[in-house]
Every structure is written in C-alpha cells, then in structure tokens.
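The pair is quoted verbatim below.
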Amino acid sequence: MCTIRSTIKAALLIFASCAPLLGQRVSPTPQSTIFHVEGTISSPWESLLHGALVPRKKLIFHGEQPITTATTDEYVVLPRTEVTFRGDHETKTLVVDEKGFYSADLPVGVYKMIAEGPTIWPQALTTYVRLFRVTSPTTIILNGALYMARTSCDAMVGGDTEEQKMEAWKNVCGGEDSFTVPSKDGTPLQIYIRYPQRQNTDRGCLYTSSKIAEPGVPVFVAYNLFSLEADKVFYDVKNRTIAATGNVVVADGSGTTRHADSLGFRIEDGQVVPLP
C-alpha cells in the first residue's frame, strides 16, 4: 500500500582525513572524482516579483524572518531560490542567479537535492526534492520548478491513529511520498513523489493534479537522474512501474526533455526503463 511510506534509513558513508601535524596541508580531492551539476529552477516569485521589496512581517524563509536582506525597517528584498546538495562527502548551498541558474562542482557520490524559496505569508511555494547518485566525473543537468502551494486545506478525515488521519488528509490535500528502491550494490536510492491529490488502490497509488485547489501544479516524480511531471501518475509499488498520463514531461539528467500524452516506465537497479 502507498500509505506505508518508505524512508531512507541507511546512513551515508562519510570519509574524512585529518592532518596529524600542525600546519600540514590536506590533499585536495582529485579532479577525477569531481562531477559538475547545473540547471535552472523556475519560481513564480522570480518571474512575478523579481528583486521586489516585500513586507518584512510577511516574509518567511527557512522558518524565520530574514534579517540580512534589510533595506528599510519594514521591507526587505525578496530572497532568491536556494539550492542545497547534501552528500556523503560535502554539503553545498547555492543561490540561483537572476535567470534562475545554478552550478556546482561536487565529489561523486549520493546527494539529496533540495530547492526552496521564501514564503510571502500566507502563500508558500512547493519544494523541489530528489535523491541521486553520480559515480564518475561527468556533467549532469537537473532543472526544476517551484509552484504556488495550497494555502489551506480543512478536509475532515477519519482514522484510528494520528498516522492514519495524516495519510487520509494527504489523500485529499496532497503531500509527498517516498519509497526506498535500492540498486543492487546497496546504494539507498528512492523514488520521490510530490502530488496535489492521491488515491490508494490494492496495487499502488494514483496521484493526480487538482485544477481547483492547486491549478498548474503537476504530479512530480524523481528517481536518481530521472524525473517527470504529469497530470496523473500511477505507481505500482510491487512491480515498481510508473504510468503517467496528461502533459507528461520527462527528463534524464542530460538536459533534454521528452513530451508525450502518456508514458510508462519500470524502476530497476538505479535505472528507469521505458515500457513498450
């Protein structure tokens, strides 16, 4: 069942070396283990309110009001989207430029990527989240989008426990699901799904967009370097297959995208294989 969320419990390995003598220099990471990642993160704040001044009392970022972007006592410059890569060797946070572009050089490994923007109360933005692995020096392109999030959802739901009530609430009001789908070598990859609405079935879950509650917000799915957006996505938990319909847009980390009315995929060993 989709209501049983799989979370990554496996700890990421951390290797560190310490210089035994005072003043000894630590050798830099060899270039052969560095990869390059770049892309753009679109945001309604960037397109609608680029560089605007907004009331300080209505602006929230990282759960608090900003204090370093002040221009007057009452207004602050709207912060740009931040992109964070959390990995087993390094964590790096970047701020997109005026065109929404970011780039970074990182040691190869497993990374959780999070792109997030500020809230102008009461309007928050969705976050962009994915887990991916890079095993060799290369260049990957990961583009993403933030959307206007639902401002409220007062759905009345039932359930015997708080967890059951929360899962029932997510069916109506939307949320995030993640399922551990490791590769054969044990790398703790996951399939991540963000959705406006959800329906449970015996085989999996049907995720759908909502033209009324969250117009323009698609279902988003990511696994390793693969990602897609669509109006509807059915994920078969047992067979690890994805069936996407309606305005399907697929990316694979190369910078190219594919558009279709419907597409199907199977998850296996860190790869996403198209279904006939």
In short: Helices lie at 44-48, 162-173.
